[in-house]
Amino acid sequence: MRIARHFIDELITRVDIVDLIDSYVSLRKAGRNFMALCPFHNEKTPSFTINPDKQFYYCFGCGAHGNAIGFLMDYAHLNYVEALHELASRAGMDIVYEQTEGTPTSNTVAFDELYQIIAQAAHYYRQQLRQSQAAINYLKNRGLTGEIARDFGLGYAPPGWDNLLKILGTNSLKQGQLVKAGLIKEKSNQSGQYYDRFRDRIMFPILDVRGRVIAFGGRKLGTSEHEPKYLNSPETPLFQKSRELYGWYFAGKIRSLQKIIVVEGYMDVVALMQYGITNVVATLGTATTHQHLTQLFRRVPEIIFGFDGDQAGQKAAWRALETALSLLKEGRQVRFVFLPQGSDPDTLIRQEGTENFNTRLVNAMPLSKFLFDTLMQQIDMTSIDGRARLVELAKPLLKQLPPGPYCDLMWQKLSELTGIHLGNLATLIIQKDTVPKHKQPTIKTSQKVTNLKELSLVHKAIVCLLHEPVLSQSVDYPNEKLSFFKQLDIKLLLELIEFTRHNPQLSLGAICEHWRGTEYEQILNQLAVKNTHLTDNSVDIDKEFFDAINRLYKEYATQRLVFLTQKITNLTAEEKQELKLLSQHRGQN
């Protein structure tokens, strides 16, 4: 299913690019625009500018530019569909998909149907939980109350291979939906034969940011060694593990949210929330990703990771540290809690209570200490060789930090630990590659043009329309004169005139988005970054536009006169009259 074009236009109109970028980068007001240090290259003087009227950003230093969708793709490393979903979530909009002819097959299931079938499965699992004493006893033995099980929508998938299939998979269409939702699987070597994915498991519904069930996690009740203890839904059109966090729907509703605790399991989240610690989430069978942390830092300035103190917990914490480094701009903090070996948040909070567990959170280890302590355990700090080795180990990590006070203090700490003067340390390791690779702009930059006179008439008219789309209302359409030309990008100008006549309210960012993925995407983006979109009154765009159109009309008259003159022996009556008028007009000029 393709996302509807009209929905994307509406989405870009609703989203405020200033609010979006401000959630990632610190902005300051500069006249009608906003400015910041560019997030795509290393600089000391702000050259990254956001125009709220145009809903467009541009960096005078590196040339990075785009709209809200482009920013999420380049800065947060989301793909196009992920960026649309993120913006829709921010705007409180439901994704709208194009209508396709015919009845959906198992390979093309509408998203609203997926939400519906998963909701029906969640209801079925909740009913089964109420009917299974074994499942109820398991939850009671784990210390869960009926209230917390209700709040989290816990359920039970009974033993058997086709319980859910019989209830919801009543025809081939429904079976296709269940497959797409990750609820049933096709039998090996038996096309068209299916079985339930989840069997004899406590079911934990996974919710998106709007509270809709999008997937499940299942904890087995039986003792079979052939089955994993925890089984998650597979990746589906609704569910991507690298983006979703268990419990985020509940934690995200806290208005005064200042920090988030990241743990490893479903039961950890449920238990902590039962004991009053509600600002907690868990990853879903995967390491903490850049997308996870970006999503969390958008809401809170501090993240605390809670891991087991064993070797596996240490490794998980180190992976989280490496992922977090590039996001630690000013005002953000990451800390770590290492629990006693053999304990997890679920069991520990039941043993020591909420107050003692909160004390552990208050005393959580800062990322800086965890980083240097871990590196120093690998070397002999009493020797020159060991301290030199510390520099080599720390260098690739510290280079990932964004410029700012935290980055400066981390380099200063390395200087203190190694005994190398900070200035000498900088000379030694601050090279041209200081900017992390993931921060390099990934979009194509354009050749800088600072004067509209440097552009062709067609490109000049396009630039003006991009910044003042209402100008198209003053141009005839269909336009025989402009259609006559064979000039480069004249077709784009005509399409732009038609589009803006029907959508004069759209911003520059929305207009550019309309041509994403087309043959004109690159040239349109190049023309969009001409400096007129950042000037207030220095360019009279109306005058420049009509000057370009009128000069094109004059060129049309000249070319048309030549064309008719060459065709003089075969002219129609209308063409003879046109030739006469063109000749008279030329004589008057």
Can you give me a brief rundown of this structure?
With 589 residues, the protein is an alpha+beta fold. 46% of the residues lie in helices and 12% in strands.
Describe how the helices and strands are arranged.
Elements: H1 5-14, H2 17-22, E1 28-30, E2 33-36, E3 48-51, E4 56-59, E5 65-66, H3 68-75, H4 80-91, H5 111-131, H6 133-141, H7 146-151, E6 155-157, H8 163-168, H9 172-180, E7 184-186, E8 194-196, E9 201-207, E10 213-220, E11 230-232, H10 248-251, E12 259-263, H11 266-274, E13 280-282, H12 290-297, E14 302-308, H13 311-324, E15 333-339, H14 345-362, E16 365-366, H15 367-376, H16 384-398, H17 405-418, H18 422-429, H19 457-467, H20 480-483, H21 490-502, H22 508-514, H23 521-528, H24 541-566, H25 573-588
Parallel strand pairs: 12-13, 12-14, 14-15
Antiparallel strand pairs: 1-2, 2-3, 3-4, 4-5, 6-9, 7-8, 9-10, 10-11, 15-16
Key attributes of the depicted protein:
589 residues, 25 helices, DNA Primase, Chain A, five-stranded antiparallel beta sheet, alpha+beta, Dna Topoisomerase Vi A Subunit, Chain: A, domain 2, DNA primase DNAg catalytic core, N-terminal domain
Describe this protein's structure:
The protein is of the alpha+beta class and 589 residues long. The chain folds into 5 domains: 5-91, Zinc finger, CHC2-typedomain (DNA Primase, Chain A); 111-232, Alpha-Beta Complex (DNA primase DNAg catalytic core, N-terminal domain), CATH 3.90.980; 251-359, Dna Topoisomerase Vi A Subunit, Chain: A, domain 2, CATH 3.40.1360.10; 378-438, Pheromone ER-1; 452-588, Orthogonal Bundle (DNAb Helicase, Chain A), CATH 1.10.860. Helices cover 46% and strands 12% of the residues. It is built from 25 helices and 16 strands. A 5-stranded antiparallel beta sheet has the order 1-2-3-4-5. A 5-stranded mixed beta sheet has the order 13-12-14-15-16, with helices on both faces. The longest helix has 26 residues, at 541-566. It is flat, with a radius of gyration of 31 Å. The model is unreliable at 102-109, 431-450 and 532-536 (pLDDT under 50).
